Amino acid sequence: MEQRKIRVEIRARSRFWQNAVMVEWNHQFPDRALVSDSPGFYLLPEEWLADLTRVAAQCFGTVLRAPADPGRRRLFRLLFERDG
Fold first, then answer.
1. Cβ atoms of 44 and 52 closer than 8 Å
2. How does pLDDT run across 46-68, given as a tens digit for each residue?
3. I need a labelling partner for 32 at 20 to 30 A (CA). Which of 22, 48, 69, 81 fits?
4. Euclidean distance between CA atoms 32 and 25, whole angstroms
5. How far is Cα 51 from Cα 6, in angstroms, rounded to an integer?
6. Run of H or E residues at 10
């Protein structure tokens, strides 16, 4: 049976920490490859979400469930862009 995949966004303090999340994920879970969907977004089995969230927190990052339709997230970012 195929695992249900979800789309997530990994956010971190900087590009360095973004890369650190990926390095740490690969170190802790070498048999679990994240599939890049677009920069900063990944597809993964839903069962991995808790582990990825924990790894991201170790690297000053967060994991957000992303909408299946990336255009929707881009639209909200354009409409509600943060100042500063």
1. yes
2. 999 999 999 999 999 999 998 77
3. 69
4. 8
5. 14
6. strand 5-12
CA distances for 83 relative to 41, 60, 73, 80, angstroms = 23, 22, 17, 9
Determine the Cα–Cα distance for residues 29 and 80; give it in Å rounded to an integer: 36
d(CA 25, CA 14): 17
C-alpha dist (Å) from residue 79 to 75, 76, 82: 6, 5, 9
And the tokens for 61?
């990052």
Q: At what angle do helices 49-58 and 15-28 cross, to 10 degrees?
A: 130
How far CA 37 is from CA of 14, 69, 83, in Å, comes to: 20, 11, 27
Facing residues of 5 across strands? 45
